[in-house]
Amino acid sequence: MGEVRKPSIGEVLVVLIAFLVVVFSFVAIYDLPIQLALFISWFIVIALGLRLGYSYADLEDGIKDGIREGLGAIFILIAVGALIGTWISGGIIGTLIYYGLAIIHPSIFLLATLIITSLTSLATGTSWGSAGTSGIAMMGIGAGFGYPLPLVAGAVLSGVYFGDKLSPLSDSTNLTASMCKIDVIEHVRSMIYLIVPAWVISGILYTVVGFTMDVGTAPEEIARVEEYMQVMQEYFVVNPAMLIPAVVVIALLILRKPPVASIAFGSLLGVIWATLFQGMNFFEALGTAYDGFAIDTGVEFIDDLLSRGGIYEMLSSIAVIMFGLGFGGLLEKIGALRVIVEKVAFLFSNQGRASIGSIIVGVMGNMFGSAMYVSLIVPPKIMQGSYDELKLKRTVLSRNSEVGGTLTSAMVPWSDNGIFMATLLGVSVFEYIPFMWLALISILLSIIYGYTGMFMWKTEEADN
């Protein structure tokens, strides 16, 4: 490899605009797979890399490095796919839906969704696993009560990301703390000052909406609830013993056992439960870990909700993640995002602007890296200089990195979280974004804190 040079801001902008044009045209105009758009985008960056003096082999190494950094997410996605398939076949999801319809009052359903998914995610440390279990159940219950599914999806996402951000078990929480060079407990304490107020405000909003929508009381809605419950009892054995696998998996994750192994063990329990309680052949039940579960009840929504899961269903999302990570690795290799930040670094001259900058860089990580892991790695690398100059503690950097990275990850249709959540919940990204109130309120609070100085802690050097 000969001498290489940094890209100019013009070159970087041309590449990023070309990327957005390709992705948008493929998805919105030509109805072509997002995976193909991301794959083609590799070669747009490779062309610039060759122009800058990199060898093709070096650029390919950048792709490999980017994918390697996100392998943890891919492993969890595989395990979650298996878990969903076997937990549906084992009657675990059906039991959750049945008891939810029987116990939860329609008026407080949205608040209950927020609380239940928050507790699940807080205990397990995984937003994906929580969405794939309690999240799916709450979507079914909400549909039974007559709630708009985008609104229910927003409450589910608010809950799963709340718990994920306060759980020391979360891989993204640990990654952020590591990138900012602070202890994970320090990071969680910093997040409390932001995410708890956002959660309380979101809870109030979901409660108010629940009481004003007048759902679950009309004769047709009561009949639908009864129909859903009857279907669950007809096609699955429903009793408290069906919830044992969920309790076991949550306990394993609380005990800080490896997430992939814990979720995979939960999948095995789902297979055993399907064999012992649901009357399935063991090998047929085992097959649902890969192929997912299919059911034909004659109730269209229930069939759509429960005919899913399996590793096979996740392969498309895995491809998106791999292509996205490779694209992010290429941008990192040629230093594209660093060039942009260097050019606008003067804008981050005060606490408020630094907060906005962290959020923007996190969003850019999701948009151009197509993965939450990229969005959590990039902001600390790029923004730490500005925070150090402002004498702000790294806990402030880590908190704002989470806001821009994790909490916006499901808002990008081609990101790993956007693809996963939209596929899982059956609601498009653009439909549920307006109802992701926890994320939207957290962004607003982060900016308010920056400009008011609230909870913007200074280093000891600045205090002296």
Automatic annotation (TrEMBL):
<keyword id="KW-0472">Membrane</keyword>
<feature type="transmembrane region" description="Helical">
    <location>
        <begin position="352"/>
        <end position="378"/>
    </location>
</feature>
<feature type="transmembrane region" description="Helical">
    <location>
        <begin position="432"/>
        <end position="451"/>
    </location>
</feature>
<dbReference type="InterPro" id="IPR052180">
    <property type="entry name" value="NhaC_Na-H+_Antiporter"/>
</dbReference>
<keyword id="KW-0050">Antiport</keyword>
<dbReference type="InterPro" id="IPR004770">
    <property type="entry name" value="Na/H_antiport_NhaC"/>
</dbReference>
<keyword id="KW-1133">Transmembrane helix</keyword>
<feature type="transmembrane region" description="Helical">
    <location>
        <begin position="74"/>
        <end position="101"/>
    </location>
</feature>
<dbReference type="GO" id="GO:0015297">
    <property type="term" value="F:antiporter activity"/>
</dbReference>
<feature type="transmembrane region" description="Helical">
    <location>
        <begin position="311"/>
        <end position="331"/>
    </location>
</feature>
<feature type="domain" description="Na+/H+ antiporter NhaC-like C-terminal">
    <location>
        <begin position="159"/>
        <end position="454"/>
    </location>
</feature>
<feature type="transmembrane region" description="Helical">
    <location>
        <begin position="262"/>
        <end position="283"/>
    </location>
</feature>
<keyword id="KW-1003">Cell membrane</keyword>
<dbReference type="GO" id="GO:0005886">
    <property type="term" value="C:plasma membrane"/>
</dbReference>
<keyword id="KW-0813">Transport</keyword>
<feature type="transmembrane region" description="Helical">
    <location>
        <begin position="136"/>
        <end position="162"/>
    </location>
</feature>
<keyword id="KW-0812">Transmembrane</keyword>
<dbReference type="InterPro" id="IPR018461">
    <property type="entry name" value="Na/H_Antiport_NhaC-like_C"/>
</dbReference>
<comment type="similarity">
    <text>Belongs to the NhaC Na(+)/H(+) (TC 2.A.35) antiporter family.</text>
</comment>
<dbReference type="Pfam" id="PF03553">
    <property type="entry name" value="Na_H_antiporter"/>
</dbReference>
<feature type="transmembrane region" description="Helical">
    <location>
        <begin position="12"/>
        <end position="29"/>
    </location>
</feature>
<feature type="transmembrane region" description="Helical">
    <location>
        <begin position="108"/>
        <end position="130"/>
    </location>
</feature>
<feature type="transmembrane region" description="Helical">
    <location>
        <begin position="191"/>
        <end position="215"/>
    </location>
</feature>
<feature type="transmembrane region" description="Helical">
    <location>
        <begin position="235"/>
        <end position="255"/>
    </location>
</feature>
<feature type="transmembrane region" description="Helical">
    <location>
        <begin position="36"/>
        <end position="54"/>
    </location>
</feature>
<protein>
    <submittedName>
        <fullName>Na+/H+ antiporter NhaC</fullName>
    </submittedName>
</protein>
